[in-house]
Design goal:
With 176 residues, the protein is mainly α.
Length: 176
């Protein structure tokens, strides 16, 4: 487990922007790597901030619906319609979040020139190796990689998506 956490920490700098929610700004190393102009940085940061505020509002609504679901599952008898309406609302919000995230990515891509897009593509290809690196490290097939100065990279990978994987959605009160 410690190896898995260490690998996730190492891979965090290579994760897509949507893994770092609320209040993020483009990092100087990324700006330098992509050779972004000030206008590009400002436009991306502004769009991200607006998107983050909107996503935060949607996440608050999802949390409210979770509380409503918990209250509904405590009732006897269960009201399938009330539960279904709430589950459908959560799914609708999650789809809206995903759609707007994709639209934001397209907006950002439209700001980049061909050289910047090529550099970004190389970063995307590196991220595609993440699951293989995590698996290899978790099984002891590779050592934890050090950061550039010999220290472990200490960033933490935090998913921004407020929507849990479908397999984890469950709100029944299991307290006896």
């Amino acid at each position: 487990m410690n190896r898995l956490i260490a690998v996730l920490c190492i891979l965090a700098p290579f994760a897509p922007a949507q893994f770092f929610p609320f209040g993020r700004g483009l990092s100087r190393p990324l700006i330098d790597h992509l050779e972004l102009a000030t206008g590009q940085v400002d436009a991306i940061n502004r769009a991200n901030s607006e998107h983050d505020r909107w996503t935060q509002e949607k996440s608050a609504r999802i949390n409210q619906v979770y509380r409503e679901l918990a209250a509904e599952t405590d009732k006897e008898p269960l009201d399938p319609k009330a539960l279904g309406i709430r589950y459908a609302e959560i799914e609708g919000i999650c789809r809206e979040i995903a759609d707007r995230g994709k639209a934001l990515t397209r907006e950002h891509a439209a700001l980049l020139n061909e050289s910047q897009k090529a550099k970004l593509k190389a970063l995307e290809e590196a991220v595609s190796l993440a699951s293989k690196i995590v698996t290899a490290s978790a099984h002891g097939l590779m050592e934890v990689l050090p950061g550039g100065n010999g220290e472990l990279i200490t960033a933490v990978l935090v998913p921004a998506n407020a929507c849990p994987p479908r397999a984890q959605v469950g709100f029944a009160n299991t307290t006896p």
